[in-house]
Amino acid sequence: MIRVTAVEALEPYCIRVRFSDGVEGTVDLSSMIGKGVFEALANPEEFARVFVDPTTQTVAWPNGIDLCPDSLYEDIKAQQQAA
Q1: What is the number of structural domains in the chain?
Q2: Is residue 76 a contact partner of residue 25, using CB atoms and an 8 Å limit?
Q3: Could you tell me whether strands 51-52 and 24-28 are parallel, antiparallel, or unpaired per DSSP bridges?
Q4: CA 14 – CA 75 distance, rounded (Å)
Q5: How many CB atoms lie within 10 A of CB 68?
Q6: Which of 18, 26, 35, 67 is the right S-S partner for 59, CB 3.0 to 4.6 Å?
Q7: What secondary structure, in 3-state letters, does the chain show?
């Protein structure tokens, strides 16, 4: 099982994610920010609080929002194949 090992907030509303198999890349989340549960992340300071949840190994924020690591992984792999 591939796990998230690191995440870093980038501007504007992008994250850099590293996985346990060495795959690493940037995901643009701007299309989700400000909508539904992601409304709170429109505040750049809140967005910057992203971390890897040590229990679930997901990209998460202190307010309880998290992202599916499989989707992030597939997005990054697709970007790498397109390049």
Answers
A1: 1
A2: yes
A3: unpaired
A4: 13
A5: 10
A6: 67
A7: CCCEEEEEEECCCEEEEEECCCCEEEEECCCCCCCHHHHHHHCHHHHCCCEECCCCCCEECCCCCEECHHHHHHHHHHHHHHC
Sheet of 14-19: strands edge to edge?
4-10, 14-19, 24-28
Per-residue pLDDT of the chain (83 residues; tens, 9 = 90+): 899 999 999 989 999 999 999 999 999 999 999 999 999 999 999 999 999 999 999 999 999 999 999 999 999 999 999 97
Domain membership of residue 13 as a residue range: 4-82
Closest CA to 21 of 56, 59, 54, 70: 70
CA 36 to chain centre: 17
Are 49 and 61 in contact by the 8 Å Cβ rule? The answer is yes
Q: pTM score > 0.90 for this model?
A: yes
